[in-house]
């Protein structure tokens, strides 16, 4: 158990932005919300997955929606907590702890806001070890958790409980359409589980990992070291390319930011050219038409000068970026997981070849 | 209290089709479902609104979705009952009786199917006295009922509870988007209320009215009388035009059948031409650009030969029809009701001028 305070948030936001692989919502907006919430209560209690006891009632929390929307429709701050309250009220229980949905961008911060609002601890870990675009892609569900009930809430007071769903893909479909109707962003609470299931299926210690990544970036900034190299020293993997963005195509359809980037190498990488395809998150790096890095491994872009995580909705022509290829957690590499989060689940007819 | 048996269904289906003013779902499909259900249990108990006691817990039941969809995606029969079960489970209550949502087309039959499935009586009446396209247009809500919670269910096992909504229009918006995601048709249970509220806000005895209308049509068929005139003799109002459909424009957008019809008068009405605009239901009759009959008064088309109700999704070029103008119930004529179901609520900048 440790106590997370305001000063921890900057590094966590940077690290979670990097683990967000381009998605997961805006890390800066998430940071502002979390800072406000943590300031108000002083601290948030974080428990290690090993400290979760079998009888604990755990709820998975985060935000749902296209990150593009959150720029103009700022989350009001209590959507996620209201979703948890709606689920508690539906089930007639009080949850003992919050398990983050994804450790990426703003969605790494939302559980901290909920923790502060409801005064229950956050478990250090998440269901993706990164960000993914769809709800069925969380390890809690991949490894047998119940897709229902789940609850969505907006900032107006609307609350929707998905009390029964045929499977996790139907959870995603129905929750997505409700989110769109709620204006493109909603708080989500779901996958209620006991402590035993949480311990078995959570990707552990990703909050600490985000913090360590962020601290490495901040240290590199202070010392004028190479921030991309600092990230890789913590996460493993490699810098795949240092380059300049020469083309961005992006559209927001059905609640997702979809599109691709083209980067041309600079410095040692001059002459190379890669294409990155994304759906909220970066999914595949192609070079000469061949996949070089493939989901669920992490493809993340940071600015070359400051190691700032670059999300798919903020990236623009001319940005200079390190394209980092980071190995995904082992829980995403099993056949069960690859069926849900592997390249074929995103429509790419290639096998997953781990980068490490 | 009376007992509704299989033999009553044919006339109710015809009458409800006529009260459906072109919408409310396919009366024939609804009839087949209800016949199956009533046959199985032998009878359905119908109670008069005056027999509802204050402490009764009443639920409003029906189907939601575009009638066009129900032709290809046949309701499976238990969507509506599952929606009631989902709401019972959410609230932790057992309902004492079912109040129909609308007395139109297939939706007049759905509550009978639910009644048979759950073995609780149906109250003789409904929340519209006809059919309307949107959920907030039921008298139970217009006159102060609570828009939440409500539940939707599909045939696959998905169940969604709208546990809190900002107002009845948000109920409609969110429920509509869930219905579309469920494939365009869903069972709906909502507006839970006590018996006192039901007695005060239900449009009474519309099931009996539908039956009387249907019996009049069947009698006219047997005796080769004029079926349109037989309907008007029961409902009041008038035959506005006998004509031939010369143009139909219809598209299914956002879960609704929207469009217009043009009819040219025949016989005594030769030389006249009217335009009927609809959104699932017929909303306004225009002649020489002037509104002649306006929602919430009923505009309903029946075939000239057999008095068959013609729905907006089945009507085609060449059909010969009596356009009937029927006065709406008094509960739809108050300022509160007209704000929700009057012509301006549908985008027509005209006042409601009752036909009678």
The CATH architecture assignment of the largest domain in chain A turns out to be 3-Layer(aba) Sandwich
- Helix and strand content put the structural class of chain A at alpha+beta
Helix content of chain A: 25-40%
Number of domains of chain A: 2
Most extensive interface between two protein chains, with residue counts: A-B, 26 and 26 residues
Biggest sheet layout of chain A: 7 strands, antiparallel
- Number of helices, where a helix is a run of at least 4 consecutive DSSP H or I residues of chain A: 11
The Cα radius of gyration of chain A reads 19 Å
**Beta-strand content bin of chain A:** 25-35%
3D structure, described in words:
Two copies of one chain form a homodimer. With 356 residues, chain A is α+β, with helices and mostly antiparallel strands. Chain A has two domains: 2-204, CV3147-like domain (CV3147-like fold); 232-346, Beta Barrel (CV3147-like), CATH 2.40.390.10. Chain A is 32% helix and 29% strand. The first copy, chain A, has helices at residues 9-19, 27-41, 67-72, 79-91, 110-118, 139-142, 168-181, 195-201, 206-223, 227-235, 335-341, and strands at residues 2-4, 44-47, 57-65, 97-100, 122-123, 125-126, 150-153, 159-164, 185-194, 203-204, 238-253, 256-265, 273-279, 281-287, 290-294, 298-303, 320-326. In chain A, the strands form four sheets. In chain A, strands 15-14-13-12-11-17-16 form a seven-stranded antiparallel sheet. In chain A, helix 1 crosses helix 9, helix 2 packs parallel to helix 5 (110-118) and helix 9 (206-223) packs antiparallel against helix 10 (227-235). Chain A starts with a strand and ends in a 15-residue tail after the last helix.
């Amino acid at each position: 158990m440790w106590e997370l305070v305001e000063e921890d948030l900057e590094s966590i936001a940077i690290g979670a932005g990097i683990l967000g692989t381009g998605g997961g919502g805006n890390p800066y907006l998430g940071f502002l919300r979390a800072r406000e919430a943590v300031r108000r209560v002083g601290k948030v209690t974080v428990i290690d997955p090993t400290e979760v006891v079998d009888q604990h009632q755990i709820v998975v929390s985060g935000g749902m929606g296209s990150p593009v929307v959150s720029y103009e429709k700022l989350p009001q701050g209590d959507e996620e907590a209201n979703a948890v309250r709606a689920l508690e009220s539906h089930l007639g229980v009080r949850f003992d702890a919050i398990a983050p949905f994804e450790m990426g961008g703003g969605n790494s911060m939302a559980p901290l806001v909920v923790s502060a609002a409801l005064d229950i601890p956050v478990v250090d870990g998440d269901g993706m070890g990164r960000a993914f675009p769809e709800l069925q892609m969380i390890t809690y569900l991949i490894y047998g958790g119940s897709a229902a009930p789940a609850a969505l809430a907006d900032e107006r007071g609307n609350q929707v409980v998905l009390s029964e769903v045929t499977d996790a893909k139907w959870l995603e479909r129905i929750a997505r359409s409700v989110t769109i109707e709620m204006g493109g962003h909603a708080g989500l609470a779901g996958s209620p589980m006991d402590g035993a299931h949480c311990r078995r299926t959570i990707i552990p210690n990703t909050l600490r990992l985000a913090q360590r990544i962020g601290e490495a970036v901040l240290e590199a900034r202070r010392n004028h070291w190479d921030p991309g190299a600092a990230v890789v020293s913590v996460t493993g993997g490699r810098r795949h390319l240092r380059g300049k963005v020469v083309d961005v195509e992006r559209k927001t359809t059905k609640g997702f930011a979809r599109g691709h980037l083209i980067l041309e190498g600079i410095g040692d990488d001059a002459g190379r050219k890669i294409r990155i395809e994304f759906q909220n998150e970066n999914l595949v790096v192609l070079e000469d038409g061949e996949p070089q890095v493939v989901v669920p491994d992490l493809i993340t872009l940071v600015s070359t000068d400051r190691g700032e995580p670059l999300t798919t909705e903020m990236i623009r022509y001319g940005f200079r970026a390190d394209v980092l290829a980071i190995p995904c957690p082992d829980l995403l590499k099993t056949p069960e997981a690859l069926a849900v989060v592997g390249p074929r689940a995103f429509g790419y007819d290639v096998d997953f070849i781990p980068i490490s």
